[in-house]
Amino acid sequence: MMNKEKTDIVVVGSGPAGSVLAARLAEVNGLKITLLEAGPSDNHPFIHIPAGFIKMIFKSKYIWPFTTIPTANTGQRPIEVMQGKVVGGSASINGLIYNRGLPTDFDHWAELGNKGWDYQSVLPYFMKSECFTGTGDNEFHGRDGAGKVSSNKWIHPVCEAFIDGASELGLKRNNDYNGRVQEGVGYFQRIIHGRRRITPAMAYLKPALKKHSNLRLETNAQVTKILFEGKRAIGVEYQKGSQTCQLMANKQIVISAGTVNTPKLLQLSGIGKGIDLQQLGLPVIHDLQGVGSNLRDHYSCRVVSRLKNINSINELARGTKLMGQIARWMIGKPSIITLSPSVVHIFAKSKPELRMPDLQGVFSPASYREGFVGLLDDYPGMTCGFWKHRPKSTGYIKLKSTNPEDLPLIQPNYLSEDSDKEVLLAGVKLARQLVKTGPLQKYFDLENLPGKDVQSDDELLHFISQYGVSSWHLIGTAKMGPAEDVNAVVSDRLSVHGIENLRIADASVMPTSPSANTYASCLMIGEKAADFIKQDLK
């Protein structure tokens, strides 16, 4: 017998936006909220230890093992784009960076017809979600929000030399890229407080579960279908173990399943490009061609060099030195255990005449294995890599079959636009320059990747195709835009066009990539979505 229940609001997915949204809605007395998470609880200790990042991304229990369709631009390689499948979503396994992007990113969203998404309108929501403990301008930072954000306290001589050397290339030290100016070089702000990663589940969801009896979290509950009466969403069907359950929503359903799983769920439920759904034998509830299209991601490439005359993270992460780092972490002193895999940020222009940065770079005093993000190699090294801020290449998410257990087809079409290739090529060239500045000369030994024999643009582009990886910043597959935009999926109030009582709140609604990692913007989207729903309830 199928288990049937009722609630007021169903939230699908406990990632950054979903955790924020559910917690904020629980503040409404008498409103019953049920949050469904496909993955398990976030009780694994490595989730909460910052350096545990590298352990978690390879644990199949806690990730969706997504890969892309190979193309010539990726050397015919499938690219891993895994997402979090655990309470907290990808924020429980990501690289811990807090980065909002440029004001012009959000002004552009508003210019596309999305009222209330300009920078001045979204800034209060960024600040509302932030408790920043570092040094920065209070005009841009929240100090009493739920989400803890801190500045780096672990200082390495190679990092300092890198930052000093960047000034030779016109890149000044910038301690607060989330403030008035993004361009420059400095240490990343991270979702770390004390010794621990602070996920939105820890900051928002768990306190709300303790405080509000009207909020329920159901783990290991994979939603397989949205239920409709005509074009009105009335509930969801989900699988929990061997049991099929239905959860009916008296007021609203919000999908916060992420850039891959949100369009997949819509398509399985009959919302998407009609011809594609019909070919799979699915009934078409609503022909909405933008579902799954407009997929964008940051494709990055890194230069790796060997170090001399100093210990890098590679040595500090082994043997007795690692024991020493663990001891320092235990007593609350700066340690590699409290590091994100990217330590130093670089925001730069691929051409001097540009008004704003179009490149984001990362630097760490560590060498990483070919083609892997965060997996240490066995020699002392340093790594510097870049991606293009605002890629123009777009792709799609499509169902492989009608089986909810099957992973969808994922095609970002990396570097299919020539301008994306040109900017990333400039980034790789800049990375090579940055690791050879004067202050780094006493540490720089030789370049391992791409190596001194790779010099021409064609050779570098081949290197990029062979060794580039995803930055795991997938966005855009349920694009926000006005109804007259045939590729738009949701309105500027995040309601699905043509469907009643159904909203989307996650990175899939972003119409274009922010000049940043996506975590901070997802918190902001969750905060705004909660306000939209509260306003509707009134």
Model description:
By secondary structure, this protein is an alpha+beta fold. The protein has 2 domains: 1-55 and 83-147 and 190-296 and 473-538, FAD/NAD(P)-binding domain (3-Layer(bba) Sandwich), CATH 3.50.50; 153-187 and 298-392 and 420-471, Cholesterol Oxidase, domain 2 (2-Layer Sandwich). The protein is built from 14 helices and 26 strands. The protein has helices at residues 16-25, 45-48, 53-56, 103-111, 119-128, 157-166, 200-211, 261-268, 274-279, 313-316, 319-330, 418-434, 457-467, 519-537; strands at residues 3-12, 33-36, 63-64, 83-84, 130-132, 147-151, 184-187, 189-190, 192-193, 196-197, 215-218, 222-229, 232-240, 243-255, 271-272, 286-287, 293-295, 299-307, 344-348, 359-364, 381-388, 395-398, 409-411, 444-449, 469-470, 502-504. The strands form 7 sheets. Strands 1, 2, 11, 12, 13, 14 and 26 form a 7-stranded mixed beta sheet that branches. A hairpin with a 2-residue loop joins strand 13 and strand 14. Helix 5 packs across helix 14. The longest helix has 19 residues, at 519-537. It starts with a strand and ends with a helix.
Characteristic key phrases:
FAD/NAD(P)-binding domain, 538 residues, Cholesterol Oxidase, domain 2, 7-stranded mixed beta sheet, 7-stranded antiparallel beta sheet, globular, 26 strands
Compact description:
The chain is built from 14 helices and 26 strands. By secondary structure, it is an alpha+beta fold. The protein folds into two domains: 1-55 and 83-147 and 190-296 and 473-538, FAD/NAD(P)-binding domain; 153-187 and 298-392 and 420-471, Cholesterol Oxidase, domain 2 (2-Layer Sandwich), CATH 3.30.410.40.
